[in-house]
Write a structure and sequence with these properties.
Layout lengths: L5 E6 L23 H13 L4 E4 L14 H6 L8 H10 L5 E7 L5 H14 L4 E6 L4 H6 L8 H19 L7 E4 L4 E3 L9 E2 L4 E2 L14 E4 L4 H10 L2 E4 L4 H18 L7 E10 L3 H12 L4 H12 L14 H6 L4 H11 L6 H8 L9 E4 L1 H11 L6 E5 L5 H16 L12 H5 L8
The chain binds flavin mononucleotide.
């Protein structure tokens, strides 16, 4: 059989999708504070044989812009953040095969807590859990967790390395066959098959024994999306799924080839990790219908959306600068949020001291064009996905222009076209996310 693509839905436990204007769309559902909202999306995705519904997260409301949250609230720019684990659980309990991914930060949580939450999710969903490992990025998150400023970028990754060692250590501290549960003999578990971790490191201490027996997948699937040099090395070491942002196909092809070469050098092998770029898809029955839809969506955007979200992601207050005032070298060096955003603007604008206008124009933050947008008939979208697949990626993170219609349209129109071409499966291969991704279950004991 030909290789087939991996499809992931990019979900948010908030009032809008990744596209901040989505809540303004006339067809956007308004019941994002209910379990039913997430469950409806989950059922749609499972019907479309998606591999994974994945929830992003940030641990603060966007309030770096003008050092205030009022405009964020008024305009609804990612102004609500529910706990994604609970929304994902609601979705997981309404489905039976779809993977359920959640973002958790290694900078603000404790390893034992994260290990436990994901092992529990894996138990309760019959082996469908995935953790998106993030290191967090701005001072607003730091302030919510008792710190003035966010930890420096590379230190965040140092901490994340040790964090992952502990989480994986706990997950491996129960043998697969440790549980006996024999009422007749009265033996519950074999104590020889459960160990303490006894971790003492630079950032953490954690003793164990772990409180959750080995879960159906053995270890939940790990997702990572580092874009810096350090981040990509980390992603290649730990990730099973790696999410990326490509400005276009050509850059994507180069980046994909480099990442696969790197994987081979590290000994994990080219196919050990699946790479999926974030994209939008605006599909219509016809090309014209899709273009009309796209035009209506673009009209929902307000300029303030981009400025608020640039300030959030770069951890720099864009209200402090004139729109055409170049950043000083000191300001550029001091950017402590996602540095890949800054670097992309420098490369694309050709200026080492870009202006806020350059940041807006070259990142297109807050608009659909932040990611590649596939717009058109099912055939046109499938053509584009086919061109990307295998040369630039192993699958896609499908972002929603608005919820739930984006996913309903994609599943109704694009999925059958991909299936007809043999590019996408028509059935789930198994019951766990690992089965469905074709990743082996690690054995212990
Ligand atoms: C598709 C995608 C989803 C992401 N989701 C989150 C998220 O939910 N929370 C978060 O803090 N960062 C998220 N990130 C950011 C990455 O974790 C990472 O911090 C960022 O790409 C910068 O890379 P670096 O950490 O190597 O500098 C996401 C990135 C991508 C490409």
């Amino acid at each position: 059989m030909n290789r087939q693509m991996t499809l992931i839905a990019f979900l948010q436990a908030q009032n809008c999708s990744n596209f901040p204007a989505s809540w303004r769309h006339p067809d956007a559902a308004g019941d994002f504070l209910t379990a039913a909202y997430y469950q409806r999306i989950g059922r749609t995705l499972e019907g479309g044989k998606f591999h994974l519904a994945f929830f992003d997260d940030r641990l603060a409301i966007p309030d770096v812009y003008a050092d205030d949250f009022k405009v964020t609230m008024k305009e609804g720019i990612r102004a609500v953040k529910l706990d994604p684990m609970l929304c994902a659980s609601a979705l997981g309990f309404a489905t039976s095969k779809l993977g359920v991914g959640v973002t958790y930060s290694t900078t603000y949580y404790e390893p034992i807590h994260v290990a436990r939450v994901f092992a529990t999710l894996d138990q309760l969903t019959g082996g469908r859990s995935a953790w998106n490992v993030v290191t967090s990025l701005n001072n607003s998150e730091a302030a919510n967790f008792g710190n003035d400023v966010v930890l420096e970028h590379d230190l965040r990754y140092d901490r994340a390395e040790e964090f992952l060692e502990i989480v994986r250590g706990h997950w491996r501290s129960w043998d697969d066959d440790a549980l006996i549960v024999d009422k007749k003999s009265g033996v519950f578990a074999d104590p020889e098959k459960v160990r303490r971790l006894e971790h003492k490191g630079q950032w953490f201490k954690s003793r164990g024994p772990f409180t959750v027996p080995r879960s159906p997948q053995g270890e939940p699937v790990l997702i990572q999306a580092g874009q810096s040099g350090r981040g990509r090395t980390f992603a290649a070491k730990w990730g099973d799924l790696v999410f990326v942002i490509y400005p276009n196909l050509k850059v994507g092809q180069k980046s994909y080839a480099d990442f696969k070469d790197h994987l081979e050098k590290t000994g994990r092998g080219r196919d050990a990790v699946k790479i999926a770029p974030a994209v939008y898809a605006v599909v219509g029955e016809t090309q014209m219908e899709a273009e009309d839809k796209r035009a209506a969506i673009d009209k929902l955007v307000k300029p303030i959306d981009g400025l608020v979200l640039l300030s959030e992601v770069l951890n720099f207050d864009f209200a402090k600068k004139g729109y055409d005032e170049p950043f000083t070298t000191e300001e550029m060096d001091g950017i402590s949020g996602i540095q890949a955003f800054r670097d992309r603007v420098v490369t694309l604008s050709g200026r080492s001291n870009p202006t806020p206008r350059d940041f807006v124009e070259f990142t297109r933050r807050g608009t659909l064009d932040e990611f590649p947008v596939f717009t058109g008939s099912p055939k046109k979208i499938a053509d584009e996905m086919e061109e990307w697949f295998g040369t630039a990626c192993d699958g896609f993170v499908i972002s929603a222009t608005h919820v739930p219609s984006s996913y309903e349209d994609f599943v109704r129109l694009v999925v059958p076209e991909l299936q007809r071409r043999g590019l996408f499966r028509t059935e789930f291969q198994g019951t766990t996310l690992r089965d469905n991704l074709g990743i082996a279950r690690p054995r212990v004991g």
